[in-house]
Amino acid sequence: MSVVLGPVGGGCSSFEAPGGFEDDLDDGDPPPPDLLQPECDPRRLDECEAGQKCSHLVDPDLGPINRCVELSGEGVEGEACERVGDTDTCAKHHICWATDAEGIGTCVAFCTSTLVCEDPLAICSVSTGGLLSLCLPKCDPLIQDCAEGFGCYPDDYERWSCDRDQSGAAGAHGDACACLNCCDPGLMCMSGALVDAEGCGLDGAPGCCGAICTLDEAAAVEGQCPSEAERCEPFYESDAVLMGYEQVGLCQL
Predict the structure, then answer these.
(1) pTM for this structure?
(2) Quick one: which of 185, 180, 183 has its CA closest to 132?
(3) 64-94 tens-digit pLDDT
(4) Cα(228)–Cα(233) distance, rounded to whole angstroms?
(5) Which tens digits make up the pLDDT trace of 232-246?
(6) 93 with 101: CB under 8 angstroms?
């Protein structure tokens, strides 16, 4: 079950935790409201009227949506930008991402319609059930080679990219979380049932911050898992390992 949180541009991503979350709905509960249908696809350039661009935002009532918004700037990838209501100061095919508390961030490009990026150092990071596809910097979760204030997190398809650390004062091992980048760098939000910490799983938080670890015995350090009850288990299924990330693991029960 995917979880979507956080304001648009803040850098919060949806996720499907390893092991999955249990369905929170009882049989007698009403179904959730239908998600808004996207008005446009930001991976394409010409679906909105003149003076508009297609962007991604979060409707306060119904959640994430791709919608035509006012074109308020011409910032391109790597340039500073500002959130302005539902839009920002970035050009078409771009969005102001990883914004701070004042709404200041950096323009990043949406992926192409074929989910690729022109920048060879970027990866097409797909989240929010496929609604959001951004070209973000590639990274290595075992060395956390992202800029200060950013962490290396996986997307919905288990590809790793740099995104802003949205954990704030929380984000440590065992802290409750509800988006992948709501944990400190070196950790990620996973099923609470897999984290050995009070208040996680069962009657506690469905999602908790768990530690990323290495499967490489030569590189592993003693006590790399925060709890003696946790073991470093492969992040990827044996038949779905991403090349170059074979040694990535997660500390879990």
Answers:
(1) 0.81
(2) 180
(3) 899 999 999 999 999 999 999 999 999 999 9
(4) 14
(5) 999 998 778 889 999
(6) no
Write the pLDDT tens digit of every residue in 48-62. 999 999 999 988 887
CA 91 from chain centre, in angstroms, equals: 22
Q: How far is CA 138 from CA 125, 215, 241, in A?
A: 9, 20, 16
H or E element in which residue 196 lies:
none
- How far is residue 174's CA from residue 211's CA, in Å, rounded to a whole number? 9
The CA distance from 113 to 116, in Å, is 8
C-beta separation of 126 from 141 below 8 A:
no
Report which DSSP code applies to 198. T
Q: How far apart are CA 181 and CA 155, in angstroms?
A: 10
Both tokens of residue 126? 């797909």
Quickly list DSSP for 119-175: STTEEEEEEGGGTEEEEEEB--TTTT-S-TTEEEEE-TTS-EEEEE---TT--STT-
Query: By percentage, how much of the chain surpasses pLDDT 90?
Result: 65
Q: Residue 53: phi, psi to the nearest 5?
A: -140, 160
Q: Alpha-carbon distance 81 to 152, whole Å?
A: 22
